[in-house]
Amino acid sequence: MITLAEVQAFCTVARAASTPHALLQAVEEITAAMGFRYFALVHHIDLLNPGSTAVRLVSYPRDWVDAFEEGRLYAADPIHRASHTTTIGFAWSKVEAMISLHPRDHAVLAAARSAGLGDGFTIPAHVPGEVNGSCSFAMREGEDLNEEQLPLVQLVGSFAFEAARKIARATIAPIAAAPQLTERQIECVALVARGKTDWEIAKILGVGAETVTQHLKDARDRYGVTKRTMLAIRALFDGAISFTDILR
Amino acid sequence: MITLAEVQAFCTVARAASTPHALLQAVEEITAAMGFRYFALVHHIDLLNPGSTAVRLVSYPRDWVDAFEEGRLYAADPIHRASHTTTIGFAWSKVEAMISLHPRDHAVLAAARSAGLGDGFTIPAHVPGEVNGSCSFAMREGEDLNEEQLPLVQLVGSFAFEAARKIARATIAPIAAAPQLTERQIECVALVARGKTDWEIAKILGVGAETVTQHLKDARDRYGVTKRTMLAIRALFDGAISFTDILR
DNA sequence: TATGTTATCCCCAGAACTGGGGAGGGATCG
DNA sequence: CGATCCCTCCCCAGTTCTGGGGATAACATA
Fold it and tell me: Is the CB of B197 under 7 A from strand C?
């Protein structure tokens, strides 16, 4: 069982780390201290993309890393998907309660098990306008998570990710600087996201249809997209609109 | 100085809380136990919006809450802005190092101080596709933060926010059970979400354009929606596709 | 064997979106 | 006062979606 003091010490070391290697070492040490065997500290993007400068520190079994990359699973991994639905850490055994699993997802999880991964704990890391990431710690198969210390594991994960983010920040190209939409544009986009046509939006807002078309034209321009679908999704992604605005 | 055991106890209580009131009480207690005077657990959106189902638990000085709402500061608050740039908690005194402050921001901070707020600590809470949020704890003016326990404060903030999020979500009528899309349909929807036309998707998948149109027709039927924008957003919401698939 | 699901392809007509162009009024800020 | 931004409205041509109606073949399953 790790102590709070150890976590704080790790936090200090991680904050001071200026190279991926230094951070890797610190994370390796604390991973072992917490009783885990493996960890993965990653941004959820195409790991095969050669231009990628994202965060990536991994100590998973070689077999699994290979399978993961060759199968391009970074896009399909149910653990990653689950991490997009919460702000706090979660045990992998609880994933089924968080998202609905496709047969394909079960296959991914089975593949991970057969590569030697047991249960694990993943701490999500989201920053609006940046690619999402997470920090995961895993046991060998058959070993059990120590429920008691999961809060501390979450702290470690958060600090580790932030440290990695700080190191990589200079080189990561943001998806795009989030442009600011005007109030009217946001209202229109929110209604677009609810499947309304320009004409319907115009009726709802009490303006002419041409005006709505114009607002959406401007909004598309700001995001540099050409389709209203992309517009809605980009606005969703950086928080200009939210699911709670849309689904009621 | 609060202990880890107390944090864990709070976590259990918060997780079990089913009403805003129950959570409020728990947060109030632990706020005092941590040596803070005030807290604010909020989604960063228009607090005046009556239809809002957002998280909002606040115990700030009355003066400040009023000023905040009347001035519509939720959009401009530098603390909120700063919370959009990180994944871990930060002391308000460090905000200047995180974002550049306009004269207007200094005015906001000065207003907070004159309402009786001293230094504080804010834990960001982001979930892709939801409005951003944060959990803040504040001292009275003149009192100092206890640096030692900030990691634990961060844990409390995270757990509190997630609990509030869970409660807020439960009060919303649950969306119709997520229909399963076929693999091909999901591929098409993922590409729709990236702004592709049917013709482009057909080229990418190596099939006829009519086929793509058909897949999307079927997918729309399953979700019971009539617009591809809604289709993409619904698929995003229940995890059939993820931002990771889209923004790459 | 019958049934259901999935994936593939085809046609068409009307509705909706997109990207160009333009214009006037009001507010704010230096 | 000029510059800039925001909101409002208008026209047009071309592209794209959407909702109908079909079809065939492969595959699993009952």
Answer: no
Residue owning tokens 């501390």: A152
Give the distance from residue A165's alpha carbon to the nearest chain B alpha carbon, in angstroms. 9
Q: Which strand D bases fall within 7 angstroms of a protein CB?
A: 5-11, 15-19, 21-22
CATH topology of domain A4-169: Beta-Lactamase (3.30.450)
Q: What share of chain B is helix, strand, coil (3-state, %, to 5)?
A: 55, 10, 35
Q: How far apart are CA B246 and CA A167, in angstroms?
A: 25
The CATH H-level superfamily of B4-171 is: Transcription factor LuxR-like, autoinducer-binding domain (3.30.450.80)
Q: Where are the domains of chain A?
A: 4-169, 183-246
Chain A residues with CB under 8 Å of B72 CB are none
| A vs B: CB pairs below 8 A | 165
- Tens-digit pLDDT profile for residues B120-147: 999 999 887 777 789 999 999 888 999 9
Burial (0-12, 13-18, 19+ Cβ within 10 Å), A38? buried
Per-residue pLDDT reduced to its tens digit, B10-54: 999 999 999 889 999 999 999 999 999 999 998 775 433 444 556
Which CATH number applies to A183-246: 3.90.580.10, 1.10.10.10, 3.20.20.450, 3.20.19.10?
A: 1.10.10.10
**What's residue B51's pLDDT?**
46
Q: Which of A74, A154, A244 sits opposite B53 (nearest CB)?
A: A244
* Average confidence (pLDDT) over B92-96: 89
Mean pLDDT of A215-237: 94
In contact, B60 and B113? CB cutoff 8 Å: no
> Please, which residues have CB within 8 angstroms of residue B59's CB and are 6 or more apart in sequence?
B28, B31, B38, B39, B40
Q: Which nucleotides of C are covered by protein (CB under 7 A)?
A: 5-11, 15-23
Q: Which B positions 93-122 lie with beta carbon below 8 A of chain A?
A: none
B86 shares contact with chain A (CB less than 8 Å) = yes
pLDDT (tens digit per residue) in B166-222: 888 766 545 556 688 888 999 999 999 999 999 999 999 999 999 999 999 999 999
Which residue does chain A place closest to B181, by CA atoms? Answer: A102
